[in-house]
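Pilot study result, target chain (174 residues):
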Amino acid sequence: VYKFVLSLVLMLIFWFASNATHIGEIKPVLFIYTCSIYLALNAITLFIVLPSDKPFNQNQLFFTFIIDITAIVLLLDATGGIASGMGILLVVIVAASSILLSGQLAMLIAALASIAILVDTFRLITQGYLTTSSFLPAGLMGVILFVTSFFIQNLAERIRNTQKQAAKSATDLL
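Predicted structure:
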């Protein structure tokens, strides 16, 4: 639901409040296409795939997070890169992946998101949209993504262990 609402809100902001914001300012065509495709994929997932009562496996979840990273980085690119502040949306994706995926896959998501931000920053610098000083916030965002993944994984593991202990205690009492 979050991704569907996010893509819908970004599209609405672009169409109705783009004068007040910088969303999609640098590359509006890329923003429109990316946001439209992301909205369509999220609508399909929300209204067709999720109601099927068939849980996603690790590979499907990984692929979903890769699509999310790709879409957010393209939207980030169309909006002005790391300086736009939209990179913070990747923290939500990394946090979700750290809860739902196993340790190595979750760290891989954080690594891919970090690399994508750095590559996008480099590309925007070579195109003249950003200066080299943009590498510092891009690098810091990468560090934030890894720290988020690490801490959320530890928290999720503690919660899983507590649930197992509670279930075991409940069966011992019966």
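One observation from the pilot: The mean pLDDT is 92. A full batch analysis is planned for the follow-on phase.
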